TrEMBL record, chains A, B:
<dbReference type="InterPro" id="IPR036390">
    <property type="entry name" value="WH_DNA-bd_sf"/>
</dbReference>
<keyword id="KW-0238">DNA-binding</keyword>
<keyword id="KW-0479">Metal-binding</keyword>
<protein>
    <submittedName>
        <fullName>Transcriptional repressor</fullName>
    </submittedName>
</protein>
<keyword id="KW-0678">Repressor</keyword>
<dbReference type="Pfam" id="PF01475">
    <property type="entry name" value="FUR"/>
</dbReference>
<feature type="binding site">
    <location>
        <position position="92"/>
    </location>
    <ligand>
        <name>Zn(2+)</name>
    </ligand>
</feature>
<dbReference type="InterPro" id="IPR036388">
    <property type="entry name" value="WH-like_DNA-bd_sf"/>
</dbReference>
<dbReference type="GO" id="GO:0008270">
    <property type="term" value="F:zinc ion binding"/>
</dbReference>
<feature type="binding site">
    <location>
        <position position="95"/>
    </location>
    <ligand>
        <name>Zn(2+)</name>
    </ligand>
</feature>
<keyword id="KW-0805">Transcription regulation</keyword>
<dbReference type="InterPro" id="IPR043135">
    <property type="entry name" value="Fur_C"/>
</dbReference>
<keyword id="KW-0862">Zinc</keyword>
<dbReference type="GO" id="GO:0003700">
    <property type="term" value="F:DNA-binding transcription factor activity"/>
</dbReference>
<dbReference type="GO" id="GO:0000976">
    <property type="term" value="F:transcription cis-regulatory region binding"/>
</dbReference>
<feature type="binding site">
    <location>
        <position position="132"/>
    </location>
    <ligand>
        <name>Zn(2+)</name>
    </ligand>
</feature>
<dbReference type="GO" id="GO:0045892">
    <property type="term" value="P:negative regulation of DNA-templated transcription"/>
</dbReference>
Length: 138, 138
DNA sequence: TCCTACATTAGACGTTGTCTAAGTCAAGAT
DNA sequence: ATCTTGACTTAGACAACGTCTAATGTAGGA
């Protein structure tokens, strides 16, 4: 976390209270908040923080590769601080919970050359869908 | 296409002019329109069709499994009439063009049991990203 | 042909995200 | 320590996408 702030300072970022608070909210594993959730949690620590600043800061962190955008439901985008380790997502079809997961093998290898239509394929995003333990017993 | 209308009639659907026009717009391969694009094209055939009807009809077709919802960019959802043949999507990072593609192998097999966290995993969605031929030469 | 439950419509409303203009402040220079 | 300046933050308007409601229209069976 302070690693993150160090890196950002190294890139010429001004370290404002607002940015520190957003970074703090995004600290942790299996964190997948929407922008408005980040804003709500940030406002508990710094009540006067504005929505625009949260959106701006999230956008900047995405551009810098420090966090990932995830859209698993076509609704609000979610932000995943675990951007430095390649991973995919497992989503509960009932409650929407998201887990980070690590499939084995080369995901790109599954797409044969004749199915690439001349594209230079660079990345793959995989979303596994199922029912989580909590929802299947309920 | 008329197959589709037959199936829907069999399920108790009223065949209105509006629903026929939406079905007609969604006919074809590699079709991935947004709701508003569907509305615009439908309005060329039936000028008085309303936005609400297009949204309603698309939602019903999704519930019936006749078309698929696709969200590749976190913006507007797109609708894919090719719902009866399992497939994934290849998206151009520059222009947003979407191709239907067919990866080989069992996509679910890539997720080991210890990475399933007790979920009953039922489906996988894969989005390949790259640059299409048109955009890479330009 | 008539009836009625289902379908459609216009437009208000909700959510999510972006933009602008004015004020504020972090951090280097002095 | 204070000054200066350009980057940062703010409130609120605006935009894109989608949903909902109440009034009206109509498909298809009786």
């Amino acid at each position: 976390m302070s690693d993150l702030l160090e890196r950002l300072r190294g890139r010429g970022w001004r370290l404002t209270a607002q940015r520190r608070v957003v970074a703090e909210v995004l600290d942790g594993d299996h964190v997948h908040y929407t922008a408005d959730e980040v804003h709500a949690k940030a406002a508990e620590l710094l009540p006067e923080i504005s929505r625009a600043t949260v959106y701006n800061t999230l956008g900047e962190l995405v551009s810098l590769g420090e966090i990932m955008e995830v859209s698993t439901d076509g609704r609000a985008k979610r932000y995943d601080p675990n951007a430095h380790h390649a991973h995919q997502h497992l989503v509960c079809s009932r409650c929407g919970t998201i887990r980070d997961v690590h499939p084995v093998g080369d995901l790109l290898a599954g797409l044969p050359a004749e199915e690439r239509f001349g594209f230079q394929v660079a990345a793959v995003e995989v979303t596994y869908r199922g029912v989580c333990p909590g929802c299947s017993t309920a």
